Amino acid sequence: MLDGLAPLISRIGTADFGPALMTLLHASCGADLCSVFTLAGTKPGVLVAESRDPEASAFARVASLRYAQRYWRRDVAALSTLGRAHRSVQILKRPARGIRDVEYQHECYTEGSVTERLSLYRRGAPSIIANAYRERDSGPFHAAHTQAFADLALCLHAVLERHAQLLEAAPPLTDSAALAQRLSESADLSPREAQVAALIMAGLDQAEIALRIGLKTSSVITYRARAYQKLGVQTRAGLRDRLDALLSPRSA
C-alpha cells in the first residue's frame, strides 16, 4: 500500500499534488472527496480540496473554504482531537449525522451528499488536518478503509507537511472554482449556490449544470434563484456585472 505513495511524493510542491492525493485516497481508502488544512495560527488554510469527479472539485473547494472561514471554531470534535495530537497522529471517523451544528452539516455535508469523514490530525509547524470523505451513494467507510487510512497516516502526514512547507499558498484553483470562491467569500453564498453561479458565468445552462454536478434541474434552479437573490441580480448579465465589480481592484 505504501508503494502507492510514490506518485504523490513525485508531485510534492506542484499543482498536481491534490489530484494525486485524491487518487491515492480513493484507491486505498475508498474516498470520494478529500481535503487538507494547515494551521499555523488561529485559522486554517486550505491546502487541498478535491473530488474523484473533477467537475465536483469546485464544490469541495468552496465547502472547504467555508469550513475554514466559518465552521472551524464550531467543530468541537476536530478541535478536541487536534489538541491530543501533539506526540502522535490522531485518527477520527465522524458520520455526517453526528454533526449537531445544522448549518455546518448542511453546507459542508448535505449539499455535497457527504455521509462520513475520516480525518488525520497532527500538531506541528504547521499543524496538519487531512480528511477523506464518502458520498451517500458509496455508503460509510468500511473497516478495511479505516485501517488503510490509519496505516497510511504517518507517511501521509510527512508528505503533506513537506508539501505545505514548499507552498506559500494553496494550489491554483480552476476558473470556475476561483469564481465560486470569490462569490462565496464576498456574498455569503453556500457552496452549492456559489458553484451554480460560477458555472452559469462559465456559460453552462441549467441542464448542463445539473448533469455536471449531479443535481436535478429543479435543484439547480433553486440554487440559482438563491444566489441571484443574495447577489441582488436577476439575469446572467447582472451576474456578470456583479462579478466584475467583485473582481475590480477597488473591491480586492
Task: Give a short overview.
The chain has 11 helices and 5 strands; from the N terminus they run ααββααβαββαααααα. With 252 residues, it is an alpha+beta fold.
Give a verbal description of the structure.
With 252 residues, this protein is an alpha+beta fold. The chain has 11 helices and 5 strands. It has helices spanning 5-9, 17-29, 57-71, 76-83, 102-108, 143-166, 175-187, 191-201, 206-213, 217-231, 236-247, and strands at 33-39, 45-51, 90-95, 114-122, 127-135. It has a 5-stranded antiparallel β-sheet, sandwiched between helices. Helix 3 (57-71) crosses helix 8 and helix 8 packs across helix 10. The longest helix has 24 residues, at 143-166. The chain is globular, with a radius of gyration of 18 Å. Mean pLDDT is 85; it is low at 169-174.
How many strands, what sense, and barrel or not for the largest sheet?
5 strands, antiparallel
The largest sheet has its strands arranged as: 2-1-5-4-3
Nearest-integer average pLDDT: 85
The rounded Rg comes to: 18 Å
Number of helices: 11
Low-confidence stretches: 169-174
Instruction: Give the total of beta strands.
Output: 5
Task: Note the gap between the termini.
Answer: 45 Å
